[in-house]
Amino acid sequence: MRSRLAGEVLTPKEVASELKLNERTVVRHLTEGKLPGVKVGSVWRIPRARLELFLWTGEV
Questions:
Q1: 25 CB neighbour count, 10 Å cutoff
Q2: Burial group, residue 6, by CB count within 10 angstroms (0-12, 13-18, 19+)
Q3: DSSP 3-state assignment of 10?
Q4: Residue-wise pLDDT tens for the chain (60 aa)?
Q5: What residue spans define the domains of the chain?
């Protein structure tokens, strides 16, 4: 059975709030490939599962 949070997708603002960073810093890290995420049109989306994996392992 899949967790309800497994498919959750975050915005840069939500990631910034959780990581206690400025939203612009999160967007810069996404653009530079330092954080995992995908750009859909002009909006960044960050899958929670990939973000958590990154925070535990450092793998983008």
A1: 15
A2: exposed
A3: strand
A4: 445 555 899 999 999 999 999 999 999 999 999 999 999 999 999 999 999 999 999 887
A5: 11-57
- Measure the CA dihedral 33/36/41/43, to 10°: -100
Bridge partners (DSSP) listed for residue 9: 47
Amino acid in the structure at residue 60: V
Specify the long-range contacts of residues 20-27, CB closer than 8 Å, at least 24 apart: none
Can you give the pTM of this predicted structure? 0.81
CA atoms within 13 A on the CB side of 6: 4
How far is Cα 7 from Cα 52, in angstroms, rounded to an integer?
12
* Residue whose token pair is 């810069």: 28
